[in-house]
């Protein structure tokens, strides 16, 4: 490991110690500062292969991904309630601190998608949409303006919060649907979608992620597109990594690794 990588890993481990000793991960000035420092550290341009790190650091990475996932869920939940308290919530969606990242990511994913779709999809599924389904909202508002979005989440309270954001909007309320379900129990329904998005936080462990992908491979329509989010380099301290060779049953069409403030890599694959 070179000097630059050592500094990066040292800083990540230091932040992990601070984050893991917090009483809770609810949004607060201190919590937000720590996660902002972590994101800035992990988006620095230092090339690193996290799989080659020592066992201790790999264990820290695994725990850190879970803490990040938990904190992200709490942050989204907090802002979903806050934004929904306004009249016309969708006019206030930019109050979410990482909204500009979602605008960039949505634009990027749309560009990648449209290269591989013969026509604009009529029905899209988003698996793991959460209380603040920003990807669906951004894509439905700016890019896929006639498409219906079916959002799946295992948590009923996440879905009811998400519904509160779009229910008063005359357009999105007609095109956005919320299903409380574990995707592992959805089979025939998956055949209806031309495109399926799999959220980064579905399957935090490699095995769970592999099971979800395997389930989608079995039940998606042949020729349908799967869009997944992964992480590359130091960003892999924040999110689980999907190796394109893990996508059994799919033909990988395109992989994009961002170098700006967007965190997630994007993988597009087509079901055989």
Automatic annotation (TrEMBL):
Keyword NADP among record annotations: no
InterPro entries: Nicotian_synth, SAM-dependent_MTases_sf
Enzyme Commission number(s) from the entry: 2.5.1.43
GO biological process: nicotianamine biosynthetic process
Single GO MF descriptor: nicotianamine synthase activity
Listed Gene3D superfamilies: Vaccinia Virus protein VP39 (3.40.50.150)
Keywords associated with the record: S-adenosyl-L-methionine, Transferase
Enzyme class: transferase
Record-linked Pfam families: NAS
Catalytic activity: 3 S-adenosyl-L-methionine = nicotianamine + 3 S-methyl-5'-thioadenosine + 3 H(+)
Similarity field: Belongs to the nicotianamine synthase (NAS)-like family.
Function: Synthesizes nicotianamine, a polyamine which serves as a sensor for the physiological iron status within the plant, and/or might be involved in the transport of iron.
Descriptive protein name: Nicotianamine synthase
Gene: LOC115994087
């Amino acid at each position: 490991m070179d000097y630059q990588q050592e500094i990066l890993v040292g800083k990540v481990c230091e932040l992990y110690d601070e984050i893991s000793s917090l009483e809770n991960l609810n949004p607060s000035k201190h919590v937000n500062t720590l996660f902002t420092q972590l994101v800035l550290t992990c988006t620095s341009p230092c090339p690193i292969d996290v799989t080659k790190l020592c066992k201790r650091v790999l264990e820290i990475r695994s725990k850190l991904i879970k803490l990040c996932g938990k904190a992200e869920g709490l942050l989204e939940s907090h802002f979903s309630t806050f934004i929904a308290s306004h009249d016309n919530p969708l006019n206030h969606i930019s109050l979410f601190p990482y909204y500009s990242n979602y605008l960039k990511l949505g634009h990027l994913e749309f560009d990648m998608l449209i290269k591989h779709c013969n026509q604009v999809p009529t029905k899209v599924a988003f698996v793991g949409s959460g209380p603040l389904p920003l990807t669906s909202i951004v894509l439905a508002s700016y890019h896929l303006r006639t498409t219906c979005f079916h959002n799946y989440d295992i948590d009923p309270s996440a879905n009811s919060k998400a519904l509160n954001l779009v229910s008063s909007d005359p357009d999105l309320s007609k095109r956005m649907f919320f299903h409380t379900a574990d995707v592992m129990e959805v089979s025939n329904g998956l055949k209806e979608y031309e495109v399926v998005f799999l959220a980064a936080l579905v399957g935090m462990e490699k095995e769970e992620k592999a099971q979800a992908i395997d389930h989608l491979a079995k039940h998606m329509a042949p020729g349908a597109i799967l869009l997944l989010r992964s992480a590359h380099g130091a960003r892999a301290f924040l999110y689980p990594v999907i190796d394109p060779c893990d996508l059994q049953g799919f033909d990988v069409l395109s992989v994009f690794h961002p170098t700006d403030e967007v965190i997630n890599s994007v993988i597009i694959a087509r079901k055989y």
